[in-house]
Amino acid sequence: MKLSVIILARTISDALFKMTSDCINTLRDSEKSLDIEVILVESNKQYHTSGFAYPNDVKVIIPEAAFNFHKFLNIGLHAATGEYIAFCNNDLIFYDHWFTEILKVADQHPKIKSFSPNGNFTTNFISDFQTGYKVRTHVFGWCFVAKRSVFNTIGDLDETFDFNYADNDYAMTLKKYNIRHAVVYHSKVKHLDPKEANIDKGDWYKIQQEKAAKSIKELPGYVAGANAFTDKKSLQDHLKFHAKWGSPKKLYRKNKIADLFIKFHLGLFNRWVMVV
């Protein structure tokens, strides 16, 4: 059994290089007996002349395209050869047997094909896992794992979502295709906050905000106003998500119906329920 781990990185400083190296090293150390393929999708176009160098067994891919969260994950997906694919930020610390714990759930419950590790180390849980599609409760965009067969069903990740709402879109897509997802509580992966990682968002996000500010013309009735959002980029991505999946009220109703279908083992009808 082979695990392909796709890590997105932007290696432009010693701090970022160290953070990504720590991510790779803890990944290797956490599962020494497993066959792990590490694919690094690098945003620094000058990486090869930058003086930074990751281990030779790490496959570094430098896309020609500008950074786009889902596009870069798709590039890694197309290069991956494992039966399981992990999609990861580079600001992660992996703990011992994190993937082995996911495999235990997968082996015992073969209908669950998508997984997130647990980032909450302090809470006591009454079960080994919990199924669901709620973002930041069950689905974590900073690290999720799926069987390769999932992408034979859903296709590539939607590159409309270049950063914000990427995890929301993935969760909705799983529900649409009746693919079960679970957070695995004994699978521990720490997601560093910006202070721990000693980094900031960099200039990419600022550029996207400027582009978004120019592109927003009219707001639909369900948006109270641009002031409800911290920045124009977040507002634009909010609009894109609801343009695809329906207004908040419509999406609420569709989710209620889809959840009932799943509860009564009729989730195959979600493909029609989730259409806008």
Automatic annotation (TrEMBL):
One of its GO terms (molecular function) is glycosyltransferase activity. Keywords: Glycosyltransferase, Transferase. It holds the Pfam family Glycos_transf_2. SUPFAM superfamilies: Nucleotide-diphospho-sugar transferases (SSF53448). Residues 21-111 form the Glycosyltransferase 2-like domain. Transmembrane segments: none annotated. Belongs to the glycosyltransferase 2 family. This is Glycosyltransferase, GT2 family. It comes from Flavobacterium noncentrifugens.
